[in-house]
Specification:
- The structure is a single chain.
- By secondary structure, this protein is α+β, with helices and mostly antiparallel strands.
- The protein has 1 helix and 6 strands; from the N terminus they run H-E-E-E-E-E-E.
- A 6-stranded antiparallel beta barrel has the order 1-2-5-4-3-6.
- It is flat, with a radius of gyration of 34 Å.
- It starts with a helix and ends in a 31-residue tail after the last strand.
Length: 146
């Protein structure tokens, strides 16, 4: 009887230890899941280079669908032979065409234009601070010399 009790006690201790270890693993996994991760999105094909004026300071992009690129967004182009360029969206668009300033690289008509969505940082709402009231000096009796 005593031997059965000690075997049962050892079995219970073993179960408790293994369940505690499993709980600790679940807590560490939960902590990893609580931390929000930034979602990275692959570049999205938004259009193609339609024309390049002679001065080559900007390009016209023929968009594939509705133009939803924010002003000031960085665009990248990709052409044959590993040619690439960086463009800066100007915000000017007319119909299916949009303008972008050439920042660096080489572009040719027909090169693919890609946009990468960068999420804007979350701004916390903060209550406005109460303006400080100016302390006025108490009126004192001041003698006037006339």
């Amino acid at each position: 009887m005593k031997a059965n009790f000690s075997v049962l006690l050892l079995a219970l201790i073993g179960i408790c230890i293994s369940s505690c270890a499993a709980l600790k693993l679940n807590k560490s996994e939960a902590k990893k899941e609580d931390i929000p991760k930034e979602k990275t999105e692959a570049p999205k094909l938004v259009g193609r280079i339609a024309s390049i004026p002679r001065d080559k300071r900007f390009v016209l992009i023929q968009s594939y669908g509705k133009w939803t690129v924010d002003t000031g967004s960085i665009l990248t182009t990709r052409g044959p032979d590993d040619r690439s360029a960086n463009l800066l969206a100007t915000g000017e668009s007319l119909g299916e065409f949009a303008a972008a300033d050439l920042q660096s690289g080489l572009v040719e008509v027909g090169d693919a234009v890609y946009s990468r969505h960068v999420p804007k940082p979350v701004t916390l709402l903060v209550a406005p601070e109460a303006p400080e009231t100016q302390q006025t000096a108490p009126f004192e009796n001041v003698q006037k010399n006339n």
